[in-house]
């Protein structure tokens, strides 16, 4: 027997009146005195006079949201309804103005979208999140706002809506905020990772195939990305979740670069707010982030696509040691740096020596990885890393703060446009104007105050202390 909407509403209103011993307070949906809009829906404010409030969207035929206030705070069950429907899409438990107990959200077909449990507004207890048709997505437990214990994730190899097709894909365990992979199954339902140890293979976007190795629940061993044609795209080596070596490849399976790291600094722990799920955008949990600072260590080498080496050398605890070489694309040497004796040789493409120096700064300025990125008439300029994979850039500096690179020259050639001369004297960069302009008429000088492989900071100094004649002779 079909029951009319008016009878359903009358029965609901009667039950509410009996339950709370008072008549409902009817509020037109969108009334800013009582309601606010969040995530596209109108909800009752957090503090209102005592009473049981019902919002309606059209002549009180359907309730949109209902909730009770006691001592000015939300208390008991809050129900939220689909538009123009007696069906609920959310049931939330409140006590003393805070979420306490379960919050259940429903899909349009009546299946459960998610279940979350709270204690004093913090996620605490069982969590279940499902797909739009009610299929399992994942479930687990929170403990006072943090993920805790075992979490299980599901997948569907047939991509059908049949919930029976869904199987367990991954199981993780959280201990003091750190994630450990316990078990994993492949798309055929076969378990491939036991007690945190094993190898996973997955294909993302039908393009790259990923082979990921674990030991004791953490990344260990090689992680390989393979192109559709079977050639390697990237190969990383991990030790207890830390990246210690990476090999990058060109599409032809030729090595592009090899890099190695170690980790000397103590691990830093941070906490950030993260969404429970991408479509549950108004509920957050506390996610613990573990940060480790990598230090270059071991052998580093980079290649042009034609197979010639761009550079090669060794790091020891973050410092370059021994002999480092940089080369032109034709394979001829561009720079030879002897870090043991702190001597530097620069060559042009014909192989002729252009300069000999006993400091690394000139190399950093002329090496392909460095460029000026700030205006020169300020107190500080910074050089940052830019992998152009070309030879020395030729710069044009615009004193409105802009920089333009209009060509790339050989090492040992002038890197400035005709209006300026740029030279390095010891640890000071000197810019001598050949032609006076409105913004630059006197020499500018910047002293290098710090230099790493990520950044060089140069501080403006008084150019009167610089021997301009020496600067002009040494200009590049």
What does it look like?
- With 476 residues, the protein is mainly beta.
- 6% of the residues lie in helices and 57% in strands.
- It has 3 helices and 38 strands.
- The strands form 5 sheets. The chain has a 26-stranded mixed β-sheet that branches.
- A hairpin with a 2-residue loop joins strand 7 and strand 8 (98-106).
- The longest helix is centred in the first third of the chain and has 16 residues, at 5-20.
- The N and C termini lie far apart (93 Å).
**What is the terminal-to-terminal distance?**
93 Å
User: Count of DSSP helices?
Assistant: 3
> How many E strands?
38
**Low-confidence spans:** 1-20, 159-163, 361-419, 464-476
Helix content: under 10%
Overall geometric form: elongated
Radius of gyration (Å): 33 Å
Structural class: mainly beta
Strand percent estimate: over 45%
Please give the largest β-sheet.
Answer: 26 strands, mixed
Kindly report the average pLDDT value: 77
Secondary structure topology:
Layout: H1 5-20, E1 25-28, E2 35-38, E3 41-44, E4 51-56, E5 63-70, E6 73-81, E7 88-95, E8 98-106, E9 112-119, E10 122-130, E11 136-143, E12 146-156, E13 166-175, E14 178-185, E15 191-194, E16 197-204, E17 208-215, E18 218-226, E19 232-239, E20 242-249, E21 255-262, E22 268-277, E23 280-291, E24 295-296, E25 298-303, E26 309-316, E27 319-327, E28 333-338, E29 343-347, E30 353-357, H2 361-366, E31 370-372, E32 380-385, E33 392-398, E34 402-409, E35 420-425, E36 428-433, E37 444-451, E38 455-461, H3 468-473
Parallel strand pairs: 1-4
Antiparallel strand pairs: 2-3, 4-5, 5-6, 6-7, 7-8, 8-9, 9-10, 10-11, 11-12, 12-13, 13-14, 14-15, 15-16, 16-17, 17-18, 18-19, 19-20, 20-21, 21-24, 21-25, 22-23, 25-26, 26-27, 27-28, 28-29, 29-30, 31-32, 32-38, 33-34, 35-36, 36-37, 37-38
